[in-house]
Amino acid sequence: MTVEQYYILFMISFAITLIAQIMVKSRYNKYKQISNSSGINGENIARRILDENGMQDVKIIPTKGTLTDNYNPTKRTVNLSEDIFYGTTIAGIAVAAHECGHAIQHHENYAFLKLRMSMVPVLNITSKFSYAIIMAGYFLGLLGLFKIGIILESVAVLFHVVTLPVEFDASRRGLKQLQSFGIFDSVELSGCRKMLTAAALTYVGAALSAIVSLLRLILMFNNSRRRD
Questions:
Q1: How far is CA 124 from CA 75, 119, 120, 202, 203, in A?
Q2: Residue range 196-208, pLDDT digits in tens
Q3: Beta bridge pairs of residue 78
Q4: Is 4 a catalytic residue?
Q5: Spatial distance between the Cα atoms of 94 and 184, rounded to a whole number of angstroms
Q6: Residue 18, SS3?
Q7: Which of 75, 149, 162, 204 could hold 133 in an S-S bridge, CB 3.0 to 4.6 Å?
């Protein structure tokens, strides 16, 4: 890869990340103002999705903050930010359904989720040392050490790539559940889909940024090797 090609990829990843952030913010701000016609809140829609899929043991917990929503596979809890948990907005319904999509993945042993979960302990270790090793190898001229650091950093890139199918699939599962209940009209479902599509783009941007960052390190390594 040439330096010119690297900068083209960098600009593409930067543009996608920026567009995704703008889309998420604008769509969330729009749909958090619109309540669903059924008047059901995030907690109740999450409970219904979980119960329909045989996960009565999974708890739904309100959490502080905005968009701090997540599914914890270890504790088996769907954690919803308070505005999502108590709110009846289209944005809240979409987010709650997405997190329940992750719970369904876990319940059904979805392969990519299992792979991502298995990578977390390794990532926790490599993320602490990869850049220190890279910088030490680069400034000390130790190419072997530099290469080891790049290999360790590749784990983070792989994690971002594996995250993509996990997030897209969770949204697909969540939307499928909302459609199956028959309590939301086409406009509400369209709003949920737009919300989750924008959110998914942020993961695409993150993955591209991680790939571009790795390519930059590889270019640095190749330049150092040529000087030697």
A1: 19, 9, 6, 22, 19
A2: 988 888 899 889 9
A3: 60, 71
A4: no
A5: 11
A6: helix
A7: 149
Given CA atoms 45, 110, 171, 177 in this order, what sign does their dihedral have? negative
pLDDT tens, position by position, 150-182: 999 999 999 999 999 999 999 999 999 999 999
Distances (CA, A) of 28 to 10, 33, 79, 126, 209: 27, 9, 18, 34, 23
Report, as ranges of residue numbers, the positions in the chain whose pLDDT lies below 50: none
Percent helix / strand / coil, the chain, rounded to 5: 75, 5, 15
| Residue 77, token pair as written in the block | 């809890």
> 175: left (phi > 0), else alpha (psi -120 to 50), else beta?
alpha
The pLDDT score that the predictor gives to residue 119 is 95
**Active-site hit among 99, 153, 167, 188:** 99
Q: In sequence order, which ranges of 53-185 are alpha helices (DSSP H)?
A: 82-86, 90-107, 111-140, 143-181
**pLDDT for the residue numbered 146:** 92
Residue 42's alpha-carbon distances to 7, 101, 125, 151, 204, in angstroms, are 42, 14, 35, 42, 26
Q: Which of 189, 180, 211, 170 is nearest to 71 (CA)?
A: 170
Instruction: Please give the model's pTM, rounded to 2 decimal places.
Output: 0.88
Nearest-angstrom CA–CA distance, 143 and 137:
6
